[in-house]
Specification:
This protein is α+β, with helices and mostly antiparallel strands. It is built from 3 helices and 7 strands. It has a single domain, classed as Beta Polymerase, domain 2 (2-Layer Sandwich). Strand 1 and strand 2 form a beta hairpin.
Length: about 200
């Protein structure tokens, strides 16, 4: 099986899509194609069906919140959906990134009709990031419960959450209530080698 090298894949993408997309990047042996939401469905089908690509397998799909990326140095749209594709025919992989046009109500077209495996991945991105996928057959939460408030992977979501759930023996059922945990900042413990120099069994070097 001949492997389509990253530079050759980037050239094939440029030839197929020209300057109609948001850019093609090759870094660390990986190729990333940036696609606008309105061009996404046609692009994904072309990547799956055209003989020079044949990305028949969707390995993964995830949401990303870029609001604090690079310590706030990121300029541009906040939410993106990232697709990781595999072409067995050409023994290569491709990353596709699509930024939602609206930060307040992020929308990215569903890829379920291109790769049915996108179904649960898109539900997870909706659940955790609040990204909507028009065309999805059953877009609802998949990992948090139906009464959950907010989207826990957004960078502005509090670590303690908004509500807590507990069993109330007086009411005989599970209830929701405001979080009673005081917010705190976790500081990682730093272990230095010098502090272990006198420990039994410790050997330096």
């Amino acid at each position: 099986m001949a492997t389509l090298r990253p530079d050759a894949l980037a050239a094939a993408l440029q030839a197929a899509f020209g300057d109609t997309h948001g850019g093609i990047r090759v870094a660390l042996g990986e190729v990333t194609l940036v696609v606008a939401p309105d061009a996404l469905p046609a692009t994904l089908r072309a990547l799956r069906d055209r003989p020079e690509f044949l990305f028949a397998t969707l390995i993964d799909l995830c949401g990303v919140d870029y609001s604090t990326y690079g310590d706030g140095a990121h300029e541009g749209r906040r939410f993106a959906v990232v697709y990781h594709l595999l072409s067995l025919a050409h023994n290569c992989r491709l990353r596709v990134r699509c930024f939602a046009a609206d930060d307040e109500f992020p929308l990215v077209p569903s890829a379920v009709d291109v790769w049915p495996a996108a179904n649960w991945f898109e539900r997870e991105a909706f659940d955790f990031f609040g990204i909507m996928f028009p065309g999805h057959p059953d877009l609802r939460r998949i990992l948090t419960d139906y009464g959950f408030i907010g989207h826990p992977f957004r960078k502005d979501f509090p670590l303690s959450g908004h509500v807590e759930m507990r069993y109330d023996p007086e009411q005989g059922r599970v209830i929701y209530q405001p979080v009673t945990i005081e917010p705190r900042e976790n500081t990682p413990r730093i272990i230095r080698e010098d502090s272990y120099a006198g420990e039994p069994g410790f050997r330096k070097g």
